[in-house]
Amino acid sequence: MSGTGRVGVGVIGAGVISSQYLDNLTIFPDLEVLFVADIDLERARVQAEKYSVPASGTVEELLAHPGIEIVVNLTIPAAHVEVAFAALAAGKNVWTEKPFALDRESGQTLLDEAARLGLRVATAPDTFLGAGLQTALRLITDGEVGEPLTALALMQSPGPESWHPNPEFLFQEGGGPLMDIGPYYLTTLVQVFGPVRKVTAAASTSRPVRTIGSGPRAGTEFDVTVPSHHSALIEFENGASAQVIFSFESHRKRAGFVEVSGTKGTIEFPDPNNFDGASVIYDDTDSDGRAIPAVGSIATRGTGVAEMAQAIRADKPERATGAQAFHVLDIMVSIAESAAKGEPVQVQSSFEKAPPLPASWDPKAATL
Description:
Blueprint: E1 7-12, H1 16-25, E2 31-37, H2 41-50, E3 56-57, H3 59-63, E4 70-73, H4 80-89, E5 93-96, H5 104-117, E6 121-123, H6 131-141, E7 148-156, H7 176-180, H8 182-193, E8 196-204, E9 209-211, E10 221-223, E11 229-236, E12 241-247, E13 254-262, E14 265-269, E15 279-283, E16 286-292, H9 303-314, H10 322-341, E17 345-346
Helix pairs in contact: 4-5, 5-10, 8-10
């Protein structure tokens, strides 16, 4: 049932990222945030009061709330699937933070259960719905660089332990630059080229132990249990290719770089971890580059929840589908497997990419 009126939302997880979501979820007119839940009840209460959300408490209390149609799952990666299953069992649609799951089996089971129940599991990142990336995608759709053939994507940094107060989970299962940062770049690439068919990858771990560099736990050491660098050659079903690097091992920071080359020109995308930013086109008429300002919504995290709510009411697929998220997960798992085995890995899943949003679309405009 698609229902009518504003869509009720409950947020599970009141950590750092919840503020970025609640900044937007509480002002999008098509949404009504009704509940904040966390295992730390005081943390949930503080967030609920800060954003004038009417209730807070346990996850069980949130799932029992009859007015909630979408659960926004902001838990740690290792809990994403468990929380999503609980939400589905309670009859709720789910928007989950990335990664979608940690392995193919649990991700596929989650998709199957959602389909069986007639519910949705949409997944971050929703940065590709922002004005920056949508403008770039529209430029490609309009033929500004001809047929896209190749791409280069780079994210290199020393690692987040220098600034994050609790960085351990970013260096454990479900983390690392591949699983933490990769979804932004890989989602952008599949929005350009469509599904991936094969990957060939390499990986390394520069330091088995790292040290927290800021905050109240500064000086605390922790173990690194996943690779801190992955590089890969990606081949798409349509014959195009991309080279990617996701690294927490570089002392030279290179973040937000995605470049797509086509038969007529090259386009440099804005940072795929952001919602805004100009695109730059290089071609035979302007080899120095021509900047194209972003046109569209610059609302940030939570944009995908608003688009999902509108899709629910319109009884049509949302753009950040579970199928897309599962395919991106499959690509990341395949990259990890290829690096571990030292051989190419075929990507078995697929999905249908969504068309670009109209430039006039705005999650801050009331439609329901």
